[in-house]
Amino acid sequence: MAEIKPFRGMRFDVEKAGELVELCCPPYDIISEEQRKQYIAQNQYNVIRLELPKEGDDVYARAGEVLDMWRDKGILIHEDKPAIYIYEMEFNAYNKRDCVKGIIARVKVEEFSKGVILPHEFTLSKAKADRFNLMKATNCNFSQIYSLYMDPEHEITNRLDALSDAAPENELTDSDGVTHRLWIVSDQSEIAAICKAFADKKLYIADGHHRYETALNYRNYCRENKIGSGEEDYVMMMLVDMEHPGLVVLPTHRLVRDLPQFDKENLLTACREYFDVTEEEDINSAEAKLKTLYDDGKKAFAFYCGGSGYTLLVLRDTDALARLLPDKSAAFQGLDVTVLHTLVLEKILGIDADNMAKQINLTYVKQFEDAVAAVEKGDAQCAFILNPTKVTEIRDVAAAGEKMPQKSTYFYPKLITGLVMNRF
Prior knowledge:
By secondary structure, the protein is of the alpha+beta class. Helix content is 34%, strand content 24%. The protein has helices spanning 14-17, 33-42, 48-51, 59-73, 125-138, 155-163, 188-197, 209-224, 264-271, 286-295, 320-324, 330-333, 336-346, 353-358, 368-376, 391-399, and strands at 4-5, 10-12, 76-78, 84-93, 96-108, 117-118, 140-141, 145-149, 170-173, 179-185, 203-207, 234-241, 248-250, 253-256, 275-280, 300-304, 310-315, 362-365, 382-385, 410-412, 422-423.
């Protein structure tokens, strides 16, 4: 099963580079160009120059040059001996303060067909080409792939809690109020025990599908060209217990825009074939209403077309997906996003899978307030407010060898980039 190992992590020397909070950044794919420039203006050594390069005619080659320069100057230094890193994030979600903790290690990359590391979402080729070009130029993972594992007795988490009882090696609080902490475990007996604990486990990718597929491509590239030392057979991951009490998945809402002949009443009439349709007075109560239905195991959406109220859609025909998608597993058929995409977006509105992937008539937003505002401003014709996907649903779909539609999950908070890096 999963093979993990320690590595000599590459980290910033804060005495030379500056405050760690100025050197790290969020994941590259959620950073705007304006934000990228702000990070660099604040500190020229911000990791964004490596993770999202925009300098020079060949941005990837320039990233490699910058990396070499920073290593030569001692801005980036390597651990004296191989280590495993304990990483904790403390954050606010659903009106409470919470923590999630896991380990950062090297994980041996395996083809999905082997059933050791399992994906749950589809990926886009453009993003994979970008990450592959960056890996070829830098031979480095600047950010971790976020993966989950099953550990019913929570032995690994208990061990991590004991090992992180002392003060962390690094700590910072980002602009979103998330506190990030890093502990370094270099004791060989502890490392051996942790690695052994993963020998019977599968890993479920939570976030970072593009980077994982890139790691596979990079390994194959090195083998075909007879380059590398064997370290390219591994990729840096953050590994978290699937039942960790601090694990939070947020919903991703759908906005419909620029759809010819969109008609609210026709849509609701068609929805009544499958859903109980109820008019609600206050859009601000939608999230709470959906949460109640979520806790009851119901499939429900808030449909918003503007104004103060909204329409509540609760799935009544629970066998509809089995009839329409007989070749899919029960886990896939039962996903909220499957219900919405199949019965409403595709069957009623005519937005097929290719349209969704290219985002021709569909936009994805994380925040409820942003979804409502987009409709009110006329940027969208309507919004579908969703409940989050359950972690167990992610596991079951992946275990069935299937993939969810894009933007089915949003693990919060996002792992910060720059605390520790993996140089081959």
